[in-house]
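quick one: manganese (II) ion bound model?
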Amino acid sequence: MKDKFFIKKLSNKNPTKDITADDLKYKIPRMTSKKKVAVKINKKIIFSENNIPIIAGPNGVESRELIFKIAKFLKKKGVKLLRGHAYKPLTFPYRSKKYSETKSEGMDWLDEVKKFLGLNIVTEVTEIQFLDRIARTADILQIGSRNMQNLELLKEVAKTKKPIILKRHFGASIRDMLGAAEHIILEGNEKLILCERGISAPHTHRETSRFLLDLQAIVALQEICKFPVISDPSHATFWAPWVPKLTLASIAANCNGLIIEMHPNPKESLVDPLQPLNFKEFSNLLAKCKKISKAINKKIV
Ligand code: PEP
Ligand code: MN
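yep, here:
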């Protein structure tokens, strides 16, 4: 008798817990479909079930010299998507005395990288007022965690018709994230990539692991929605020594792409110096990513 009661109470008809059948039908109808959507950046870069594009680069576009140094290295390694933000939000205004956004000048450097090295650019849009400038250069527009539910920004970014990476806010449920994503689709832009980048959870082990990479969210999002889901272990762990293992775990969890922060001399990164990999660490990780991907019939691109 007692067992029966517990089984009834504890059984969960919706494995994704906070999303009901009604939600799927009425709140996020454009997210779901049996057929997966592949997001094509160009002939070579496609976010899809069998491809894992790597997005790598520094946190901020700090200088022309830095961005060229990194871009040249990535090109040699066969990485096609360079990330770096010329506009970026900081959690604390005083975090780095030396750091300031390079804004339109930084975007000009990214333009040069594109022109001379042929890399494609992923960069963040923080505000509608900067969108025109950023969209002129970016191949993928990133909406950062802190802006996940900035709905006016989402709608304007969607109207550019460019591919979009929507990062999950570190305090948002999967339901909230998909609700935000639905706003983008409603504007007629289906070039959407969702990104898991770690959530806030109590950490007792070490102060440097700032967020918790929710690997389960990758699987859950894919169960519900038709868009590619990528993983950002760098922002989740905030701690370079943990990035390689969580990158490999993300591939095993079926991610459709990766964001990895790197820097020629991480200690000198003006923002979040604990989190980027150096060139050697990045090269080692890339080789391992290729092995793991091959083992599950996927391709690093
Ligand atoms: C970033 O990609 O540099 C970034 C700030 O990420 P997030 O919005 O996930 O913190
Ligand atoms: Mn960053």
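Residues 59, 235, 261, 272 surround manganese (II) ion (ligand 2) (CB under 6 Å).
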